[in-house]
């Protein structure tokens, strides 16, 4: 009787243990499922935040692709530069490759160098980020001449425009470090500016390209201890140039102009030239990104451009000429000749008065 009672208690205890084990297992399972559900919620929340962040970082309705266009980019270790058939870039003139940069010109007089892409670019909307360095032994205003970035129909040409040809077709962005027109009071050098050429428009070197400038800004970018960058963005027929030369890792607006029309199929490049004054002009990288832009149907069906142009360019040029005041030399000579004229008139007046007085005496006697 007692054995049966003990066996029944052991069986009840075993049953209770199994029940507790099932309850514990169920609790663990539900807890695991709850944690997994939380993890899933956290993952979804993180994904939503990431998407919203990316959308907030996107500017003017465009966003960059996950990868840059390597065939149009120039980066270390510069394996795609040279004379081999597999190269994407050509060197020209005195340009050389080092482990750290492509040196367009050294700090020596009368040097010219350039690097040009071999592959034409057929992107409709793009952004070019340029890492560069301009430095040398010359003191302020005793250095020159600067460098230029290009998106043009022509390539591998030499000439007076920062080492490239004049009468170019396409876009030129000039990083000018020396003022050729010493009488200019409106600009402070170094100066960044942009120009769109149509094959017949000439860059005036002696006037630092003022008559054809689309806009620009002062950029203290020479002999800077930190990295210096420039950004060129072309999207929806709008040209934007920004600089980062203050070491703050922030883009600063330099030029923003709508109505700029650039054909596809042009070449990217960079060039530099030195004369009696010189500097090291180093190109560290050029990275081209394709921009994804939503366009209305009518914009998609626009005719293909063949000649670069800028809307209302004549009015832009006219306004600039009107705002241009009298130069310092002109003002100086105007004052000098005015003083001389006044002095001569005074002398003539004194002589005439003396003669009139003398004639008066003779009539009196």
TrEMBL record:
Name of the featured protein: Lectin, mannose-binding 2-like b
UniProt keywords, alphabetically: Membrane, Signal, Transmembrane, Transmembrane helix
GO molecular function: D-mannose binding; metal ion binding
Source species: Oncorhynchus kisutch
GO annotation, cellular component aspect: COPII-coated ER to Golgi transport vesicle; endoplasmic reticulum membrane; endoplasmic reticulum-Golgi intermediate compartment; Golgi membrane
Residue intervals of the L-type lectin-like domain: 66-291
Native organism taxonomy: Eukaryota, Metazoa, Chordata, Craniata, Vertebrata
Gene field: LOC109896108
Membrane listed as a keyword: yes
Lineage top rank: taxon: Eukaryota
